[in-house]
Specification:
The structure is a single chain. This protein is of the alpha/beta class and about 180 residues long. The chain has a single domain, classed as 3-Layer(aba) Sandwich (Rossmann fold), CATH 3.40.50. Helix content is about 40%, strand content about 20%. The chain is built from nine helices and six strands. The chain has a six-stranded parallel β-sheet with strand order 3-2-1-4-5-6. It is globular, with a radius of gyration of 15 Å. The termini are close together.
């Protein structure tokens, strides 16, 4: 059996229904990711979240000014409540950029795994950036098509189109149920 790392990217309240940065199906993606966690199929699970860096560089300074009202929203920055029961068991790391691989502990864990199973938000932003970083690091990746959520169907589809050009060598795309049934 493969040693899989489930990497859950930025499942924060700001991306839920009714919020300024709401994605199409954050809550549904979260439920499907919890199915994987509850199945115990992955030996390791890591959560990441985006919190604006206190000392940003370059374009991140402008980003943090433009989105200060979101960056300073304490409730918006919290992880979805439905993950509370597993966040006591698995690590949550904070990043101030898009890619979760910028976190040394995440990169180290990803390198030790046979492959990284990835889900979260935003499909066309932080998830995309993380998958491309995984590929550059030489790490086989499974992109959970229904375990991610983007801002629009078109952007989700565009992200999948990008990955289709890298599939199946670098990225394998599958649904959560397909992953759970995989031998």
């Amino acid at each position: 059996m493969k040693k899989d790392l489930l990497l859950i990217v930025d499942m924060q309240n700001i991306y839920t229904t009714g919020q300024e940065w709401a994605c199409l199906d954050t809550e549904g993606a979260a439920d499907r990711l919890l199915k994987i966690i509850d199945s115990n199929k992955c030996e390791e699970v890591i959560f990441t979240r985006f919190i604006a860096d206190e000392h940003p560089i370059g374009i991140w300074k402008d980003y943090n000014v433009k989105y200060a009202h979101i960056n300073n929203n304490e409730w918006g920055n919290k992880m979805l409540d439905k993950f509370n029961y597993v966040l006591t068991k698995y690590p949550l790391y904070t990043k101030g950029v898009y890619s979760s691989l910028e976190i040394p502990e995440v990169l180290e864990a990803a390198r030790k795994a046979d492959r990284v199973i990835i889900g979260g938000v935003v499909a066309e932003c932080c998830v995309l950036s993380t998958v491309l970083a995984l590929i550059d690091a030489g790490i086989y990746t499974v992109y959970l098509t229904d375990g991610v959520s983007g801002f629009t169907k078109e952007k989700e589809a565009a992200t999948e189109l990008i990955f289709s050009g890298l599939s199946p060598l670098h990225v394998k795309m599958m649904t959560v149920d397909e992953y759970l049934k995989e031998e």
